[in-house]
Design goal:
single chain; 155 residues; alpha+beta; GMP Synthetase, Chain A, domain 3; SH3 type barrels; 2 domains; 5-stranded antiparallel beta sheet; 3-stranded mixed beta sheet; 3 helices; 8 strands; 26% helix
Amino acid sequence: MNPAQQQIANRVHELTEEVITGTSYFLVDVQVRGHKGTRVVEVYIDSADEFGHDDIAVVSKELGFLLDVEDVVDDSYKLEVSSPGIKRPLQMPQQYQKNVGRTLRVRYERESAEEIVVGDLMDATDETVELQLSSGERLELPYQSITQARVELPW
């Protein structure tokens, strides 16, 4: 993101945190694309609990109101609030915790080399994840060593 986009993303991040305070939702990511007049603001939220389109619509309405009142984005823009979906990489411990029991494809740094493993997510704490590989081996990884992790789809 360029500096203008980053400034908008930072403020959107703050306002989204205000909107979701006191709920089971957590902010995963904010992306800003485009230029003045054609900006797209993407906000990805998730929840430890079940949530759906109606929940996302409420957050979108409240956030859109705050963005307009504070005139955060110059000129016209499109606000897209959604859950991260299965295709986006996991970024936060809460996302890993929500996906315990699922199969992940994890790319991680090990002794200055990058490795990729596929395994079942057995546990996720605030500091580490534990995977069970197909060989039966259990692998514990700190989040800082993970460069990318995605839920592996069964098909």
